[in-house]
Amino acid sequence: MLKFYNTMTRKKEVFTPIEGDTVRMYSCGPTVYNYAHIGNLRTYIFMDLIRRTLKLAGYKIKGVMNITDVGHLMADSDDGEDKMVKASKEQKKTPYEIAKYYSDVFFDDLKKLNIETPEIISKATDHIEEMIAFVEELLKQGFAYETSDGIYFDIAKFPAYGCLSGKKREDQLAGARIEVNTEKHNPDDFAVWKKAEPGHIMQWPSPWGMGYPGWHIECSAMSQKYLGDYFDIHSGGVDHIPIHHENEIAQNEALTGTKSVNFWMHGEFMQVDGGKMSKSIGNVYTVSDLEARGYSALDFRFFCLNAHYRKKLNFTFDSMDAAKTARERLNNALLSHKESTAKTDPKIIEKYIKSFTAAIFDDINAPKALGILFEAIKEPKSKDIFDLAVYFDKIFGLSIASLEAVKEETNQDIPEDILELAQKRAQAKKERNWALADELRSTINSRGFTIVDTKEGYTITAN
Ligand code: AMP
Ligand code: ZN
User: What total of structural domains would you count in the chain?
Assistant: First the structure.
């Protein structure tokens, strides 16, 4: 029985799709004004784990992830400049160039991390029409009002406002900031549409003049378009609970009068050295930063699998080293299982599959499931254990099956000195000494061998 923790009900609940065997799932995607950092990527690994768990349970998925390329202001509330516009000014490129560049890098990162791309990727700027229609409907039904600078959602018209985070209306009022926008009816009213100030780079015609959408309306309009008024799962990071997701709920449920999402699922934050990541501390790491320090993207995925998605995860280079070493140990053990011709009693295999499935179906307990894999590799060497690990990898996504190819090909009769040169080249690459790495590749070539880099390392073949 598959159970997920539901942020809305604050408990683990049995999950079944609303309709048939297809799960409709929406995941808040990146704002593409910068590189995704390891914290963001932890959240997308979490999204991927939900998807893989659903597939293991035999369900099909209709997944949507948005790409925010307009409307996300520096603060999640309505403060500050648009992130895309800010980046575009700083980098002297159009917002579309910025969006294209960072989206491409984002999808490369997903690929490296074995994160499956959701079935539908929806760009905010491709859905302006749907957003305007949504805002018009909110106005028509009296849930929104116009001010001199935009259209705002009136949270007093939606009494359930705050239901996801458990915020009470009195707390919202007590905690309200000194309001600069005196036209707002309530301090927490938020913009669903902003009127463009003169010279604003991204703007579209609307019934309220030129303007651009609020960030929250994007997810409401796009989830409704692709998944309907009521869908199975909505995922994102915990920071989205108090503002972004509350606002999405208010927008969608005000119009339909019914629940919009069955399961709200949130991934906890990643910290670095026990604190927040910040540009000023210089600890905002990307996948390329990790690669430059000799870690592969999959080492990072493995690192993330060691903590439950609802627990904070503290990133340090020491713990990353430990993860890398543990993964090497795992891979080496798996390769020796792979080579064995011995068998394992099917009852033992069955027992591992049972406890693995139970761990995953219990709100995706990946660390427990990894523990079961580490138990299994202690069994006497057998190809069955390798096959078991390949099965577990449907969830882990650590490219365990491809360990096979590397080992088989490197098993050929390659002379010791060539192997040594290849190792030196790998070391040079780790140290980003590209000149030396290239030189070593040429030497290997001139001795009649070709070296090809693979996901897991390299293979050498005789020419
Ligand atoms: P953004 O591009 O800022 O909208 O963030 C993309 C995703 O990353 C969102 O789902 C955030 O909740 C998530 N996120 C941001 N910072 C962190 C962090 N430190 N740890 C985990 N997830 C994060
Ligand atoms: Zn969103």
Answer: 3
Supply 9's token pair. 């009900």
Q: Which atom of ligand 1 is nearest to the CA of 277?
A: 19
Out of 239, 245, 269, give the residue to mutate to test ligand 1, the one with the largest number of ligand atoms within 8 Å of its CB. 239
- In this structure, the answer to whether residues 362 and 450 fall within a common structural domain is no
> What 3-state DSSP class applies to 3?
strand
Does residue 150 have its Cβ closer than 6 Å to ligand 1? no
DSSP character string of 309-330: TTS-EEE-HHHHHHHHHHHHHH
| Cα–Cα distance, 415 to 444 (Å, whole number) | 11
42 in contact with ligand 1, CB cutoff 6 A: yes
Alpha carbon distances (Å) from 98 to 86, 88, 105, 275: 10, 6, 11, 29
Q: What is the 3-state secondary structure (H, E, C) of 255-308?
A: HHCCCCEEEEEEECCEEECCECCCCCCCCCCCHHHHHHCCCCHHHHHHHHHCCC
Structural domain range at position 433: 416-462
**Residue at 445 is within a domain:** yes
Atom of ligand 1 nearest to the CA of 236: 10
Any domain includes 2: no
Co-location of 183 and 324 in the same domain:
no
Q: Is the CB of 239 under 6 A from ligand 1?
A: yes
Distance 71 CA to ligand 2 centre (A): 11
Q: Which amino acid is at 329?
A: R
Rounded Cα distance between 260 and 367, Å, is 31
Q: What is the mean pLDDT of each run of 10 residues along the chain (463 residues)?
A: 97 98 97 94 98 98 94 67 81 86 96 97 96 98 96 95 83 54 88 89 93 94 98 97 96 97 98 90 93 95 98 98 96 95 97 98 98 98 97 98 61 77 85 87 89 80 81
Q: Quick one: 78 and 99 in the same domain?
A: yes
Are 308 and 427 members of one domain? no
Query: Ligand 1: which residue has its CA nearest to atom 6?
Result: 30
- Please tell me the pTM assigned to this model: 0.86
